[in-house]
Amino acid sequence: MAAVTPTLLCFGLGYSAEVLALRLVAQGWRIIGTSRKAEKRRILEAKGFTTYAFDRDHRLPPEAFAGVTHVLTSIAPDAAGDPVLDLHLTDLRACNLAWAGYLGTTAVYGDRGGDWVDETTPIEPTLARADRRARAEAAWLESGLPVHIFRLAGIYGPGRNPFVNLKNGTARRIVKPGQVFSRIHVEDIATVLEASIDRPNPGQIYNVCDDEPAPPQDVVAHAAELMGIAPPPEQPYETADLSPMARTFYQDNRRVRNDRLETELGVRLAFPTYREGLLALRPVDGLPPDVV
Questions:
Q1: Which of 45, 202, 226, 292 is the 20 to 30 A CA-CA neighbour of 148?
Q2: For the chain, how many structural domains are there in total?
Q3: Are 220 and 173 in contact (CB under 8 A)?
Q4: Which are the contacts of 170, defined by CB distance < 8 A and separation ≥ 6?
Q5: Cβ atoms within 10 Å, residue 172
Q6: Which domain holds residue 105?
């Protein structure tokens, strides 16, 4: 009997999922992904992936599920619920999946006044979008699929980091006393997902973040130091010109523990703090590595 080719179906083959997909395709996996943008689908197909359009108005054809062994979704829920489950739960149940991953957010913990949370902490979402995420998590866990929940912190990596913002003049140092954010390098996200695929434990929840929640102004200042330029001036949160959406990110304040990544999955983060992450990114988005 011919060996089964492991096949990952990614609902939302975007920034984080693509890093995992590229690793898996190099190991002989078949990758199927979705994107709403035609140009993005053309780029993904040039990398050897099969792609489809997907949203509430565009269901996937039956052939998209042929041979699928694993599924990953990064699509955010809308006011009506989770579109993947609403449109394709029956199709996914028919796949006899070995593993399913849901990329969520640590925002479901809500505001903790800077206190620590871990996966055993009851969730108390503060924001409406976080409440939708919490409801989607519950729906996936109740779906009957072998689901693993990954609560992601703020994602950074090539093309998405303070170096880019400093270069284009959009970097800001907004100061709200006591405010910290957790973050995670996109390569470490892929490492966590790979480890979970290798050690499936359906129903488990993982906080995917680095070891050091930090004030956002400190991260920008460190990037500027690595580039050898002056950081932008600090701006008090109370008087900063922020959009309503941007201001909501400062509404919650918490420190997120990630111990389960190591104790259960055996993951050692390549970038345990923003310092290692920025240093590695400097040749990509900052100054050349030989420039001091």
A1: 45
A2: 1
A3: yes
A4: none
A5: 19
A6: 7-156+184-210+256-269
